[in-house]
Design a protein that fits this description.
single chain, 364 residues, Rossmann fold, Dihydrodipicolinate Reductase, domain 2, 10 helices, 17 strands, globular
């Protein structure tokens, strides 16, 4: 199958994972990268044997089919729209945007112009979460009734070299790590319909710990603790907590409880992890992977989109999925501030599972 040529905008820390994984898919060919700092782009280009270009040059390159947008969250919607306006398909790092309204503008423009938008996280395409999906689809736990989704920690300021944006609009635990958890839940249970939630903030400022900025005070402009319940269209109700205010806890990342058993879902910020199932009164049992791609395969979502471009089939990390996840995440604050149940406006298709018999490097 003819390769799909890729350009990458944004050469920060996460870019190496994308560059490395893209080389493992035969349908992808990353040919150039761009960054606001041209020296950063040149260093990345030399490392991965590609071209460093300006954003304008990348947008004008007729050979590029997909642009992977790895800019900071606040810039995601603006950059994605520029790519779409240039006639390029876009795969964006999470989240799709920092507000539902911005995200919807991106999706509406893409639809009107018959272009594809995809978005991270694509970790649900990994062997760990695909195995959990198969167990649920095959009826091991019966009908899903409820669950828990827990991401809790102390925040990134003790180690991150530039942690300020985590505590500004567009940051926080929900938009930072929440996309992995919410997208995994949609993958396992389908779309959601409403939310009830509360938010809080432990500190008005944080103190940086990285050596170069140690002691710097960071104003906290957003909630740093979110707790609530997501009700899914299939009737399942999932308690979710996302927090930068917790020193330690003993919860597994995600658990799903059904009429016949329960599943412990591995960390959705990874592609593998240990899957466990408890059927009836039996003990918890480890489950081997039913699917491949258990290493760090960021770019698998872009590869899936590339197959959609070449064959016309559906892809899985769709803009509609990302927009629905974004509305769920931003819906926590809306429900908390109003004191009412937030009824979701968006929906999406539950992503189709991957085939079990894939050959490494292929998605068809």
């Amino acid at each position: 199958m003819e390769k799909v040529k890729i350009g990458v905008i944004g050469c920060g820390n996460i870019s190496n994972a994308y560059f490395t994984a893209a080389k493992k898919f035969s349908i992808l060919e990353v040919i150039s990268c761009a960054d606001l700092n041209m020296e950063t782009a040149k260093a990345k280009a030399e490392e991965h044997k590609i071209k460093a270009v300006t954003v304008e040059q990348m947008l004008a390159d007729p050979s590029i089919d997909i642009i992977i947008n790895l800019t900071i969250p606040k810039a995601h919607a603006e950059v994605s729209l520029k790519c779409l306006e240039a006639g390029k398909h876009v795969h964006c790092e999470k989240p799709l945007a920092v507000t539902y309204e911005e995200g919807k503008k991106v999706i509406d423009f893409a639809k009107a112009n018959k272009l594809l938008v995809g978005c991270a996280p694509d970790t649900f395409l990994g062997g760990g979460l695909q195995t959990c999906r198969k167990l649920i689809d095959d009826g091991w736990i019966g009908r899903p009734l409820s669950g828990t989704s827990m991401f809790m920690g102390r925040g990134p300021e003790p180690w991150h070299p530039n942690p300020t944006f985590f505590y500004q609009h567009g940051g926080g635990p929900m938009l930072d790590l929440g996309p992995y958890y919410v997208t995994a839940l949609i993958h396992l249970l389908g779309p959601a319909k409403r939310i009830i939630a509360f938010t809080g903030k432990a500190f008005n400022e944080r103190v940086a710990g990285a050596e170069a900025i140690r002691g710097m005070k960071i104003p906290v402009e957003i909630p740093t603790h979110y707790t609530g319940v997501i009700e899914f269209c299939n009737g399942a109700q999932v308690n979710m907590v996302a927090s930068f205010d917790v020193y330690g806890h003993g919860h597994t990342p995600i658990e799903i409880y059904g009429t016949n058993g329960s599943i412990k879902v591995p960390d959705p910020n990874g592609f593998g992890g240990q899957v466990q199932v408890k059927v009836g009164n039996n003990d918890w049992a480890d489950v081997g992977f039913t699917h491949i791609y258990t290493d760090n395969m960021r770019s698998i979502g872009a590869a899936d989109m590339a197959y959609a471009i070449r064959t016309g089939r559906k892809y899985r990390c769709t803009g509609e999925l990302a927009l629905h996840a974004l509305e769920i995440m931003t819906g926590f604050e809306k429900a908390a501030s109003s004191g009412k149940i937030y009824e979701l406006q968006s929906t999406c298709e539950q992503p189709a599972p991957l085939p079990m018999d894939l050959i490494p490097g292929l998605l068809d």
